[in-house]
Design the sequence.
């Protein structure tokens, strides 16, 4: 069985460098790290994880609590988190939240882990204080606590503003907002941004006759959109445009509209927020709001978390908060169009 000495010889580095790649990869250049990992793959070397954890007091394991995989946002982010962590020698234990979040937290905390990355925290969730008492490095992505902890998010307020601003610029004055629970920062801030923009223009002469309807579901996994659409049809209240708080919701809205005989965007324009990878595919072509530089929140968050884990002996680094809010832009595609002027 090959040893670390064999890996060092094949990679042309010292055994100390091999050890640093396995135990503290951020201290090694990307080029050297790649050489060592190539040698490990070529030789089939299997590091003794138990020995490494005894020496370093680390498990090289990170726990991820993700939202459900039927939402394409979590498909994209989970893949990026695992890919990046694996490159730096960390394994990721993935837990999917189905609403019973307390049991998921208990499961995660029952096993030793170097850090926690999650997209499930509620806006005023008390669990963050438990993490702090345990001195467990953690970071949220896509969601955030109202005052505590580390997070990476898009500018959700501005996303809500930009989404409705785009529809208004196309001449739409009858707009429906479909969102989620105000207990989640993502839905909360996107709705507040949407509402702020509607309130701002509501009294202006150019926007006379503006009609805004809002629906915020407590649960957004499988909202009964068909029932709502049937109600709108029966009351002759179908809007000319729908602003969905996520791309996942927007895609469900489009599926529902098409199943009812409506054309998107000829009959109803639809815009989402997130700019997930699936939204740009030729079959979807969803107009959406996303991060301006198209970076991935999960990848940014796992990078920040690993830096925090690796600097655990640095008191200043441990007390420094990571609070990143990425700017957003409109990605205009095929699901919105200007109203015809009669």
Sequence:
């Amino acid at each position: 069985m090959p040893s670390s000495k064999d890996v060092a010889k094949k990679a042309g580095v010292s055994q100390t460098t091999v050890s640093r790649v396995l135990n503290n990869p951020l201290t090694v250049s990307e080029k050297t790290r790649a050489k060592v990992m190539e040698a490990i793959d070529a030789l089939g070397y299997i590091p003794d994880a138990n020995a490494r954890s005894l020496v370093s007091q680390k498990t090289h394991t990170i726990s991820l609590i993700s939202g459900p995989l039927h939402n394409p946002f979590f498909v994209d982010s989970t893949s990026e988190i695992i890919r990046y962590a694996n490159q730096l020698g960390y394994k990721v234990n993935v837990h999917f939240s189905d609403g019973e979040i307390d049991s998921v937290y208990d499961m995660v905390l029952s096993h030793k882990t170097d850090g926690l990355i999650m997209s499930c925290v509620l806006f005023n969730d008390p669990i963050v204080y438990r993490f702090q008492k345990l001195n467990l490095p953690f970071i949220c992505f896509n969601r955030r606590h109202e005052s505590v902890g580390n997070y990476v998010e898009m500018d959700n307020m501005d996303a809500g503003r930009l989404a409705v601003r785009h529809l208004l610029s196309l001449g739409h004055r009858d707009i429906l907002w479909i969102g989620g629970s105000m207990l989640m920062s993502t839905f909360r801030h996107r709705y507040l941004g949407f509402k702020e923009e509607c309130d701002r223009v509501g009294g202006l002469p150019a926007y006379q006759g503006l009609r805004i309807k809002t629906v915020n579901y407590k649960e957004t996994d499988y909202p009964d959109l068909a029932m709502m659409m049937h109600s709108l049809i029966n009351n002759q209240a179908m809007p000319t445009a729908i602003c969905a708080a996520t791309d996942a919701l927007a895609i469900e809205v489009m599926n529902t509209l098409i199943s009812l005989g409506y054309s998107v965007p000829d009959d109803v324009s639809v815009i989402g927020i997130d700019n997930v990878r699936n939204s740009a595919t030729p079959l979807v072509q969803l107009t959406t709001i996303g991060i301006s530089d198209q970076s991935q929140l999960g990848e940014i968050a796992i990078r920040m978390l690993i830096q925090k884990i690796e600097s655990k002996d640095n008191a200043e680094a441990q007390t420094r908060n990571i609070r990143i809010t990425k700017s957003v832009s409109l990605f205009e595609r095929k699901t919105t169009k200007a109203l015809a002027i009669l």
Summary: Residues 58-153+300-326 form a domain with the Rossmann fold fold (CATH 3.40.50.2300).
